[in-house]
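Forwarding these from the shared drive since the link keeps breaking.
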Amino acid sequence: MRTTCPYCGVGCGVVVTRRDDGCVEVHGDPQHPANYGRLCSKGTALGETVGLENRLLMPSVDGQQSGWYEALDALAERFGRIVAEHGPDAVAFYVSGQLLTEDYYVANKLMKGFIGSANIDTNSRLCMSSAVAAYKRSFGSDTVPNDYTDIEAADVVVLVGTNLARCHPVLHQRLVAEKRRRPTLQIVLIDPRETPTAESADLHLALKGGTDAFLFNGLLTWLERFGHTDHDFVSAHTKGAAEALKVARWHAPSAAVVATHCQLEVQDVERFYRLFASTPRVVTLFSQGINQSNSGTDKGNAIINCHLLDGRIGRVGSGPFSITGQPNAMGGREVGGLCNQLAAHMDLDNPEHRAIVGDFWQAPRLAAGAGLKAVDLFRAIASGQVKALWVMATNPAVSLPDTTQVRRALAACECLVVSEFSVHTDTLQYADIKLPALGWGEKSG
């Protein structure tokens, strides 16, 4: 059977075979365009996760094992009663980038179109919301303008805020293999730490943490000053260039100022700027080091602006490429997986978009505006504003910021439903209704 690895954002294809003795063998799928047969250690060990050991196998309600009909009736009764008494915004779903796109779609349709609230958010919020906002601010939609083949077609690959070798290992293997095949390919790593990824970099800019926007605003200033603006592209396809350049000049007027602020050598900053400016095919890969910041959206936009000013976007081997943390973070966003989105990149705050989706769904009560984002959602549970929560395919008691507060919220929740694969998770211990879920190799989509 051909399927997909459930771990990181590379989304590797795997071929799964069940042996006569019942054991499962997992190999990389040589036909899959993400990995072409490569797998990292986690993907290689996937077969060990298939089995009934430590599995949640039966539903339960209030600590008592039950059948599926009883559990679903209890869920429907409790959610329905809370909606009737307190309104649809008193209930919520918290979902996950590990869900299949189809799961994501139906959960959104149920919450936003039929319960009538937009209180459905996802753990993808923790890794991707800054990139989502940066793309929307730049392009008007949450659209990543690249695919993996651009990395191998580029002449310069800039890695920003990512330890690619550990976090997206198969993607790193592809990059390193291309570097071996084509030694002229230049790799620039921008990261305060000397991670394993630095071993493959031609230039490592170990900048002061949090100063990425200074570096890229300085690049924007440098590109304009030394004549690397693609005036035709800027005129035909962008707005606001003059304003962006004005801010960049004030923020980062020269390579020397950037070097001082970022605690780098000025010659290294200039080397990076010259390399970017002189190479038509540049891909900038950015990940959590950019996104997980109180100015993550601005940092994303600073990167995107550099690609817009010199037209290094919309061409093979070029563009600002956000790489996600989970296998289906992007799939979830495609179908409206965040509390401020609708399916197909449409916006909840746009009446025309709401009308399109509402008509297509034949929704009796489409949500009228954005719901609670992940962190705000758990604060609202703790305060009693949200009284029922359904958690799917994630473990917020461990993965959310301020886990003490999150656990307090889960314990206080009037009705907590958890759909879970494993019988032992930190979140499951708080659940009033437990629903078994199929795992990565058991679902067809």
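-- next protein --
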Amino acid sequence: DLDVGQGELVCLIGANGAGKSSTLKAICRLIPSSAHKIAYAGEDLSAARVHELPRRGLVMVPEGRGIFPQLTVHENLAMGAYSRGRADPEAQYATFPRLRERRHQIGGTLSGGEQQMLAIARALMSEPKLLLLDEPSMGLAPLMVAKIFEIVRDIASRGVTILLVEQNALLALEAA
């Protein structure tokens, strides 16, 4: 069993192949779950459709970022707001000033760290109550990893519940 309380930042750590990412994907209904029940905000998600989850406040930033590489930064952010019907990225530009500078740049041309910032910012555009982060530090330079974790702690301090999957146990435990 796994229980993440409202407003908590909980880390799921473990070795490659332990099922961390699969757990997140099962919560988001991207893969079938062997669990009897996956509950979120008191509701059973077993019949929920993937596209309904952002409207319910559950959003995932996948491993590998999953941005739209052919769209601009601004267009990627607008896609994140699709479920909410509004696309004012100013709060995200305040959190991620580098994205403001690159708002007209094609997402696929950003550095790895900038793409990770874009993926997190896009997820935040849907105003999640529960943010699932899958390996946000993977493949990033140490300075960028520190920045990403600083941002994750800031998001958590705003009351967003976070379930973080991370292989870097030291960083994950420092954040949680």
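Helices lie at 20-27, 53-56, 73-80, 90-95, 97-101, 112-124, 142-157, 169-175. The CA atoms of residues 43 and 80 lie 23 Å apart.

- D.
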